[in-house]
Task: structure prediction
Amino acid sequence: MPFPVRLWVALLFFLSGFAALAYQVAWQRLLVVFAGGDVLSITIIVTAFMAGLGLGSLAGGVVADRVTARRNLLLFGIAETLIALFGLCSRWLLYDVLYQRLGGIAESRVLTALVLVTVLLMPTLLMGMSLPLLARAVIRRVPEAAVRTGRLYGLNTLGAALGAFGTTWLLLPRGGIEGGIHFAALLNGLCVAGVVPLLFWRGEGDTTGGGVPAEEAAGHQESFCSLRQCLVMAALAGFIALALEMLWFRLLGVMVKSTAFTFGTFLSVYLACAALGALAGALLAPRVQRPVTAFLFVQSLIGITAGLLIAATVMLLPGAPEPWRSYLDSYEPIDAGTALTLLQHAWRGELAPEQTRMAWIFPVLHLGLPLLWIGPPAFLMGLGYPLLQRAAHGDITQVGRRVGWIQGAGIGGNMLGAALVSTLLLPWLGTAATLRLLLALGGVFAVMLLLMPGTTRLHLTKLALLAATGAVIWLLPDQRTLWARAHGTKPERVVVHEDGAGLAVLKKPPAGAGPDAQTMVFVNGIGQSWIPFGGVHSVLGALPVLLHPRPETIAVIGLGSGDTLYAAAARAETESIVCIEIVGAALDNLRAHAAASGYEALRSLLADPRIRHVRGDGRQFLMTTEARFDLIEADALRPTSAHSGNLYSEEYFQLLRQRLKPGGHAVTWEPTPRVRDTFVRVFPHVLAFPHVLIGSNEPLQPDPDAVRRRLADLELRYHFKKAGIDIHALLEPYLRESTPLGRYDASFDRSRLHDINTDLFPRDEFTLQPAR
Result:
């Protein structure tokens, strides 16, 4: 096949990679709305996606070896056509059908898994088939296999990297989820159009192949290994790669204080570096005499490099210059809109030197640090792919099968890594010990390398790799030190608990800070609240329950420090409260702090028999529960946080309406005017206090005098006194006649409220405007 034709095929595969990542980002958001965003739901979604890719790789390999090159190109075009058609229908299927009509089945994890695998099987199967089909179409001789497969894989992965970045920073902010899906379908259409002229091209050797020439096989007998060996190595490499990716993203997410733009940025860095590695490997593979040895050597270096970079960075963090260290220690993240505005001013020279340094925090932490940590190991991961392909191929008639099976084995390792790390290793061992375990698994490649024949000098190199692995494992910090330094503080000041859903840290005040010093509560690196209680969280919990005539049943989404929940539990009339927290480690942290600190309000909260704690996704809980509540509220959540749109959307507020008892109240924090408009659009009756919105299906009559009478209750006063909260002073600004209070009833014209948040277009979450 001439070079221009191969280049054209590679370009088509690049576009296919972009489309695949755009679909993955969009579909995952839709499926989180259906299945939930807790760790088990995310694991099910990722596993279902990968299962289809793996099966597609196996099926594509079998089919590719049985048909001609032209037929393989035709099948690729058909696959892209069907993917585009599914994509255009995916919003209807994944959202309108699964969530809006069948949302209740998400209560069963087994049924959810079966539904997701079934729904995603067709498009992911077709995506998985594409590499074996194209590889067999462009490969005519065994020596070409590693080079051309490596190039195809590298360019497809590079397209995926651009897809992750472009979807996060352009498609979702400008067109929402549907806009991203439609653009991906357009790229599939371009791939189909690009395949058509190739179907009329007639090149030499357009056959299924008739075996490998004797002289060619003789020249390669020492270069390839058995398929079983290749599959084992591919699966282990896939396991380590996906597990490392999860640990990188958790560590980096905490340090940068992630927003909705963080995951896509990290993913694009990871994929781009792996793609460049694969392209470099495609150049290197033909020159390597011992590809198995080279592959094992590269895989041994991955763990060493990853661990060494993390260990060195964490070791140097206490001496990091300002403002980097202060940002790690800070409570608030920098949102993308503010960061872009600061960078524009810095570029024009409009900022003072200190402000200019602050402006560079966002790009350095979102791109510089990921490139440092992820770049070299991911490059090595990509570099190893063509080497393994070189080792695997010895028969031209088996090229498609071996490409597909090796890719399938790698994806199988990915699936196992995702499942074990999220559900077992992180909850049981934590990030630090899991990282050590992965480095030890990487040492298996060094052991395999040591068992292979070679010269004395080569054996010394192998021993050095094994020793380096052990040394890096020893250098890695322990769990408490790792997370303390990632939060810009000392190990003795933190309480740390971790699970598959996230990381919870309590940062205690420094020694000698005084009796009024606060313990700050962080979840995934971002400040959430503080202990002792008091402030906006207390208002958010207390004001609605004191306005309600008799709040017997309450649901609170989000735990944080427990402040909002404690305030919501103030009324003696309240019989039951359910608190749903997606990061279950936050509750473990509060229990540890209560036992150590003696803070009476926190102990009372955790011992309150009326309160039931649920670890999971709050929205999914409301979707599947049969209970109805007098009061439902979510704790304060930044609108730019990842997946915050799920708790500020029109559809979420509609769900709250459906779960209220007659006369019930729904409550939300009001971080933006758009949230207010969305809330008012849904509820027929709304009271808009400063930063607090209360909605109901029935008319609302604020009665400050009734609130003051309830505040005079001795039991209620004692409840807040235990927490050290002057509840009268805290709520009085909301009860005065001069307080700005927005009132909306059924007569208000809601047709003019168009700029709102929806599940399909969470505008506040993906805004690139500075936070107000």
Observations:
- DSSP finds 27 helices and twelve strands in the chain.
- The longest strand covers residues 660-669.
- Residues 1-201 form a domain with the Growth Hormone; Chain: A; fold (CATH 1.20.1250.20).
- The longest helix spans residues 142-195.
